[in-house]
C-alpha cells in the first residue's frame, strides 16, 4: 500500500541549469506536468516551478511600480499594521515594505486594550492621508468584537478585501471591487503566471468559507470559469471533482482528495493545511495539504501546493493591494 506521507520525488527541471536535480516536495512547490495520457501517467520529465520564485518576481514588480510613483509624483504607498495582544504569531511586514519602498506604520496595543481604544486607532489610520492600506492582525483578544473592528476599516483601505461591501462588489457583474482577497488572488495569480487557462474551464472549489472558498469561487467566475462549490453537505463530491478541469481546495482535511477524485490532466490548487503525526518529523508532526500528493501527481497536469503555508505570496498580495490603493487615491496610472 502506498504511503500517504512519502511525498518526495525527484525530477529534472527545464528552468535549472542542465544536469541539475530539484526535489519535488508536497510543501512549497508547484509541480507542472508537461503531458498526461488518458490513463493519467505523465510522459518524460515534469517541469517543476518553485512558487517562491513567483513571489520574488511579484515583489520586484511592486518595487518597480513604487519607484516609478515616487519619481513621478514624489509619493509612496503606506501600510498600517495593527497588533493587539500577543504578537508571536504576527507576520513581519516591515522588511518586505522596506524592500519595495512602501512606508510601514506598525502599532502594538496591549492585550487588555479596550475595544473603544482599538477602534480609535483604526479610525486614525482611516483618516491618515499617508496610509493607503490597513491590516488588523488576527486573532483579536476575546473581549473584542472582531467583526465590529474589521468593519471599522475604511473599505478604500481594507487591503485584505473582506469588507462586506467589497465582497458584494466582487459578486456583481460589471462592478469592480476595491481589492481582491489576498489568498484567492494569489491562487489566480499562480495560474495566470504559469499559463494555465481558466476561461471556459470547469472549476470546483472545495470549501465555502468567507475568507477563501466563497471569494475564490467569485474570482473564478470573473475569469469566466464555470464554478461549482463543494461543502460538507455535498453528496458524492468525488463525482463532481472528476468533471473538473481545475480543483481548488481549502478545507484542512489531510489527503482527502485522492487520485480517483481527479480528472486526468486537471489542475489542482491545494490551499488546505493540516498537521499529522510523524515520528520522523522534527517536532513529531508534519504539515500536509488536502491533496493526496503522490496519487495526484500521477493524474493531474499541474499541482500547486501550500499556497498560504509560508505567507510569501499572501504578503505580496497585501503589498500589491496597498499599491493599488495608493494609485487610486493619487490617480496615478
From TrEMBL:
Tetrahydrofolate dehydrogenase/cyclohydrolase NAD(P)-binding domain residues are 181-328
Q: Does the keyword NADP apply?
A: yes
A GO CC term? cytosol
Instruction: Show the Pfam families listed in the entry.
Output: THF_DHG_CYH, THF_DHG_CYH_C
Q: In which pathway does it act?
A: One-carbon metabolism; tetrahydrofolate interconversion
What does the record give under GO molecular function?
A: methenyltetrahydrofolate cyclohydrolase activity; methylenetetrahydrofolate dehydrogenase (NADP+) activity
In its keyword annotation, does this UniProt entry include Hydrolase? yes
* CDD domains recorded: NAD_bind_m-THF_DH_Cyclohyd
Which terms are listed as keywords in the entry?
Answer: Hydrolase, Multifunctional enzyme, NADP, One-carbon metabolism, Oxidoreductase, Photorespiration
What this protein catalyses is: (6R)-5,10-methylene-5,6,7,8-tetrahydrofolate + NADP(+) = (6R)-5,10-methenyltetrahydrofolate + NADPH
InterPro entries to which the protein is assigned, alphabetical: Aminoacid_DH-like_N_sf, NAD(P)-bd_dom_sf, THF_DH/CycHdrlase, THF_DH/CycHdrlase_cat_dom, THF_DH/CycHdrlase_NAD-bd_dom
Taking every annotated instance into account, which residue ranges of this chain make up the domain Tetrahydrofolate dehydrogenase/cyclohydrolase catalytic? 49-159
Biological process GO annotation list?
photorespiration; tetrahydrofolate interconversion
The family annotation for this protein states: Belongs to the tetrahydrofolate dehydrogenase/cyclohydrolase family.
Q: How does the record describe its quaternary structure?
A: Homodimer.
- Tell me the function of this protein: Catalyzes the oxidation of 5,10-methylenetetrahydrofolate to 5,10-methenyltetrahydrofolate and then the hydrolysis of 5,10-methenyltetrahydrofolate to 10-formyltetrahydrofolate.
Which named protein is this? Answer: Methenyltetrahydrofolate cyclohydrolase
Q: Which species is this record about? A: Brassica carinata (Ethiopian mustard)
Amino acid at each position: 500500500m502506498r504511503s500517504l506521507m512519502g511525498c518526495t520525488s525527484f525530477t529534472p527541471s527545464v528552468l535549472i541549469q542542465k544536469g541539475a536535480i530539484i526535489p519535488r516536495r508536497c510543501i512549497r512547490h508547484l509541480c507542472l506536468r508537461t503531458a498526461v495520457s488518458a490513463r493519467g501517467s505523465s510522459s518524460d520529465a515534469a517541469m517543476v516551478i518553485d512558487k517562491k520564485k513567483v513571489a520574488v518576481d511579484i515583489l520586484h514588480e511592486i518595487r518597480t511600480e513604487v519607484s516609478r510613483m515616487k519619481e513621478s509624483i514624489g509619493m509612496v504607498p503606506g501600510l498600517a499594521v495593527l497588533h493587539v495582544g500577543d504578537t508571536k504569531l504576527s507576520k513581519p511586514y516591515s522588511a518586505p515594505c522596506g524592500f519595495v519602498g512602501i512606508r510601514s506604520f506598525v502599532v502594538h496595543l496591549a492585550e487588555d486594550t479596550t475595544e473603544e481604544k482599538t477602534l480609535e486607532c483604526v479610525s486614525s489610520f482611516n483618516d491618515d492621508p499617508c496610509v493607503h492600506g490597513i491590516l488588523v492582525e488576527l486573532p483579536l483578544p476575546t473581549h473584542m468584537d472582531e467583526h465590529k473592528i474589521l468593519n471599522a476599516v475604511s473599505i478604500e483601505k481594507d487591503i485584505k478585501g473582506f469588507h462586506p461591501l467589497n465582497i458584494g462588489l466582487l459578486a456583481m457583474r460589471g462592478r469592480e471591487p476595491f481589492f481582491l482577497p489576498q489568498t484567492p488572488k494569489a491562487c489566480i495569480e499562480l495560474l495566470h503566471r504559469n499559463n494555465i487557462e481558466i476561461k471556459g474551464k470547469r472549476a470546483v472549489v472545495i470549501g465555502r468559507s468567507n475568507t477563501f472558498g466563497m471569494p475564490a469561487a467569485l474570482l473564478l467566475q470573473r475569469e469566466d470559469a464555470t464554478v461549482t462549490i463543494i461543502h460538507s453537505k455535498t453528496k458524492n463530491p468525488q463525482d463532481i471533482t472528476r468533471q473538473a478541469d481545475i480543483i481548488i481546495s481549502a478545507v484542512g482535511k489531510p489527503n482527502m482528495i485522492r487520485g480517483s477524485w481527479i480528472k486526468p490532466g486537471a489542475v489542482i490548487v491545494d490551499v488546505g493545511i493540516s498537521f499529522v503525526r510523524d515520528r520522523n518529523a522534527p517536532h513529531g508532526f508534519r504539515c500536509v495539504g488536502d491533496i493526496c500528493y503522490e496519487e495526484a501527481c500521477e493524474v493531474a497536469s499541474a499541482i500547486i501546493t501550500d499556497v498560504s503555508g509560508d505567507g510569501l505570496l499572501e504578503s505580496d498580495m497585501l503589498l500589491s493591494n496597498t499599491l493599488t490603493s495608493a494609485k487610486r487615491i493619487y490617480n496615478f496610472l
